[in-house]
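Lecture notes, part 5. Sequence design as translation. It can be helpful to think of inverse folding as translation between two languages: the language of shapes and the language of residues. The source text, in structure tokens, appears below.
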């Protein structure tokens, strides 16, 4: 029996133009009628996602926001907030210095604002996709403890080079991974999306085999490994698809809704 469904946002529910297909809303209405809890789990900070829910039409059907790759949890019914593993200001300062030297652009979120050390065409694209206003500033002045994550904007053609550099310069202070084709993010070494999902699951007594998780890229893998049923969309990255329990159609084919409408007609998964 399925009691809890959690989904990534970008590339899974939300398209490249920051849109949510109406089929998602219809599926979530059905999930809610079955008394299945639903959480959004994103690399975006909680407050950034919260401000977009009404426009997407997701607010009435979402129970929790899990943001910053599992580092923040907001119960939308009670307003209760939880923050888990964080990084120090000193660690993030050193990180920004090291990776900006490679050509990456460091960022700091602030509600609906995206603070950057410098602007670029790629920054403009990211900000538009995330619905944020760009402000060029001294990032060090914007850093405030505790820091849940640090996000860098990357020219897509350089992503493999950035990933290779990271693998050759590992640190005990953080872990990092690609969260989109143009974003590379750092968090506390113990923090993953699975941390946030597990905290919600334990709070409500959900067992792993009662949970479905949807995602599309590398930072969704720990979530896939934690839950009973990790579903990667066809548009997802190779590493995420390799770790998934099943592959759903792409976001362009409304994979989230297509999979659930086919396999979750009741609270029991069918025809897998």
């Amino acid at each position: 029996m399925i009691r809890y469904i959690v989904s990534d946002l970008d590339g899974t529910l939300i398209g490249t133009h920051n849109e949510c297909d109406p089929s998602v809303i219809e599926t979530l209405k059905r999930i809610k009628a079955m008394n299945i809890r639903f959480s959004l789990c994103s690399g975006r900070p909680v407050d950034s996602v919260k401000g977009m829910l009404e426009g997407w039409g997701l607010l009435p059907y979402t129970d929790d926001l899990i943001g910053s790759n599992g580092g923040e949890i907001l119960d939308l019914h009670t307003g209760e907030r939880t923050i888990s593993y964080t990084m120090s200001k000193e660690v993030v300062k050193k990180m920004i210095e090291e990776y900006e030297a490679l050509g990456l652009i460091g960022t700091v979120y602030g509600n609906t604002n995206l603070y950057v050390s410098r602007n670029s065409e790629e920054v403009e694209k990211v900000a538009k996709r995330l619905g944020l206003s760009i402000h060029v500033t001294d990032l060090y002045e914007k850093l405030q403890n505790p820091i849940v994550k640090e996000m860098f904007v990357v020219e897509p053609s350089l992503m493999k080079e950035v990933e290779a550099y990271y693998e050759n310069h590992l640190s005990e202070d953080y872990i990092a991974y690609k969260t989109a084709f143009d974003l590379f993010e750092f968090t506390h070494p113990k923090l993953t999306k699975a941390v946030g999902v597990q905290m919600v699951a334990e709070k409500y007594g959900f067992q792993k085999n009662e949970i479905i998780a949807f995602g599309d890229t590398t930072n969704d893998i720990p979530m896939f490994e934690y839950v009973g049923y990790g579903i990667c969309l066809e548009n997802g990255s190779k590493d995420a698809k390799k770790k998934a329990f099943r592959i759903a159609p792409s976001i362009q084919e409304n994979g989230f809704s297509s999979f659930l409408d086919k396999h979750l007609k009741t609270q029991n998964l069918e025809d897998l």
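The translated text above is only one of many valid answers, since several sequences can fold into similar shapes. The radius of gyration is 18 Å.
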